[in-house]
Description:
The protein is mainly alpha-helical.
Amino acid sequence: STTLLDDRxxxxxxxxxxxxxxxxxxxxxxxxxxVVLAAVESKGRSLEFASExxxxxxxxxxxxxRQDRSSLEFAGEALKSDKNIWxxxxxxxxxxxxxGHMEKSIEYFTSLRDPFFRITPGLVVEDxxxx
Length: 131
C-alpha cells in the first residue's frame, strides 16, 4: 500500500508550494529528479534533503542556485569545487569552459592596438601615461 509520503502527485504539489516539504518525503521521492527540481525551484535550500545523487546533479544544483545562491552549500563535493559553479550568478547556466573563453577574450583585447590604452602582461590596464 502507498502511504502519503510516497504519493508522487501529492509530493509534487507539496514541494511546488513549499520546497521544504522535500524533507518529509520518502527516500524514493527525494531521489526523483522531477520532485527535487520542483522543490528547489520553490526553495533552493531544500537541495539539502535531495538524494546524494541529485545533490551531485549539475541541473538540480543550478536550479537550486537560481532560487537561492547559498544552496551551493548542499551540493555534492565535485560541484562545490567546480570553478564554473562558483562563478554562476543565477542567470543562464555557466559556459562549460568559462576560463578558456576568458583567455580567448583577453588574447583578443591584447591584440588590439588602441592608442589610448594598452594591456600589459598581468592584465593591468594602463593609459598612455602609465596610469
